[in-house]
Design goal:
Number of domains: 2
Shape: globular
Mean pLDDT: 95
CATH architecture of the largest domain: 3-Layer(aba) Sandwich
Structural class: alpha/beta
Distance between the termini: 6 Å
Low-confidence stretches: none
Helix content: 25-40%
Order of helices and strands: EHHEEEEEEHEHEHEHEEHEHHEHEHE
Strand content: 25-35%
Number of strands: 16
CATH topology of the largest domain: Rossmann fold
CATH superfamily of the largest domain: NAD(P)-binding Rossmann-like Domain
CATH class of the largest domain: Alpha Beta
Length: 326
C-alpha cells in the first residue's frame, strides 16, 4: 500500500482558485443537505499562549471520504518565513479505511477559505458593486482579493492594516496580480465604506464598528475563529442579516456572534441560515436593497475534504507528489 505526500507548492499548482470556488459551492450544499459529518473543531492552547493546535475530522458522502485536518496556528513574528497555519490534512478511503494522502494544510486552508468567501459574496452581495475593502495584510487578505474579483467586477480595491507599511507592500504585490486598481489607505473607517468589506485579521478586539457602515453593504468576517476574539462590535452583528457556513460551529465558536448574544442584542434565531440554504433557495439572501448582509466564516472539515480529494485526484493524474510505501 502507498500514500501520496503533497507539499505546499504542489497544492498551489493543483488547486486553482476557480476550481476551488466550484468545490466550495458543493461543500456548502453538502452541509445543507446533510451529506457530510463534521464535529465542531477542537482546540488545544499552548500553555504559554504561543499558539493553538486544532483538529477537524469529517466525512463527505460525495465523494465518499474520511479525513482530518491537524493544524498549528502560531501567528509569525515579522520576518519569519512560516505562515500562521502549519499542518496537514490526512485523507482516508471511506470504504476500507486506507490512508490515501498527506497534504500540506496551510495552502489548502488559505485557498479554500478565500474560495468559500467568494461563494458567500456571490450569493449575498448586491449584483452591482464597485469597491472591495479588505482589513488585514496577511495571506488571507491577498487570497481574498484574488478570489472575490472572480465573482464581482470591482472597480477598485482598498486595503487597511494596523501596520501601514505592510498594507502598502500588499497593495504593490496585488497590483502585479490583479487587473483592478489597489490602494492602501490609512483610515480603516474609509475602507469600511466599500460595497463589500472583508475582515481578515488576527485582531482580538473589534477593528470594525457599526457606525462606520452604511445600508446595502456586504461583510465577510473571516479572521476571528475562536470564542474569545471578535473583529467587529456587537452592534454590527445585531444590525446585519447574518449567514454562516455551519450553524453548529457558529453557535459554539463565533466570538463576534457570541458577544452580541451575551450582550442581549441577538439570539440564535438571528442567524438567517447557512450559505447552502441560500444556494438551494431555502432562504432569501436579501429582502431589500438596504440590507446589510454578513457572512461569518469559521471553516469546515468538508471544505478541506473536497479540496483535498480534488488535489489528490489531480496529483495522481499528473504524477505530482511523492508516493510513499506505507
Amino acid at each position: 500500500m502507498e500514500i501520496r505526500v503533497i507539499n505546499a507548492a504542489s497544492v498551489r499548482q493543483l488547486l486553482p482558485m476557480p476550481d476551488c470556488i466550484r468545490l466550495m459551492r458543493s461543500a456548502f450544499e453538502s452541509v445543507a443537505t446533510g451529506q457530510c459529518v463534521q464535529p465542531i473543531r477542537q482546540l488545544l492552547s499552548h500553555p504559554q499562549g504561543r499558539g493553538l493546535l486544532g483538529w477537524m475530522p469529517g466525512y463527505t458522502a460525495e465523494p465518499e471520504r474520511l479525513g482530518i485536518k491537524v493544524v498549528a496556528v502560531f501567528h509569525p513574528v515579522p520576518g519569519q518565513p512560516l505562515g500562521s497555519h502549519q499542518g496537514m490534512v490526512l485523507l482516508f478511503d471511506a470504504l476500507d479505511g486506507r490512508p490515501l494522502a498527506v497534504i500540506e494544510a496551510g495552502e489548502v486552508t488559505a485557498i479554500r477559505t478565500a474560495a468559500a468567501t467568494a461563494v458567500a459574496t456571490d450569493v449575498l452581495a448586491p449584483g452591482r458593486v464597485q469597491t472591495l475593502g479588505v482589513l488585514g495584510t496577511g495571506e488571507q487578505a491577498l487570497r481574498h482579493v484574488e478570489a472575490l474579483i472572480m465573482v464581482r467586477k470591482f472597480q477598485a480595491v482598498q486595503l487597511w492594516g494596523r501596520d501601514a507599511a505592510r498594507a502598502r507592500k500588499l497593495a504593490v504585490l496585488l497590483a502585479d496580480r490583479v487587473d483592478v486598481p489597489v490602494r492602501a489607505l490609512a483610515d480603516a473607517r474609509a475602507v469600511a465604506q466599500c460595497d463589500v468589506v472583508c475582515t481578515t485579521t488576527a485582531a482580538r478586539e473589534p477593528i470594525l464598528f457599526a457606525d462606520w457602515l452604511r445600508a446595502g453593504q456586504h461583510l465577510n468576517l473571516v479572521g476571528s475563529s475562536i470564542p474569545s476574539t471578535s473583529e467587529v462590535d456587537e452592534a454590527t452583528i445585531a444590525r446585519g442579516r447574518l449567514f454562516v457556513d455551519f450553524k453548529d460551529s457558529a453557535l459554539a465558536l463565533a466570538g463576534d456572534f457570541r458577544r452580541a448574544k451575551a450582550a442581549g442584542l441577538v439570539d440564535d434565531d438571528h442567524i438567517v441560515g447557512c450559505i447552502g440554504d441560500v444556494l438551494l433557495g431555502r432562504v432569501t439572501a436579501r429582502e431589500s436593497a438596504a440590507d446589510l448582509t454578513i457572512f461569518k466564516s469559521l471553516g469546515m472539515a468538508c471544505e478541506d475534504l473536497l479540496a483535498c480529494d480534488f488535489v489528490l485526484s489531480e496529483a495522481m493524474r499528473r504524477g505530482i507528489g511523492q508516493a510513499v510505501e506505507w
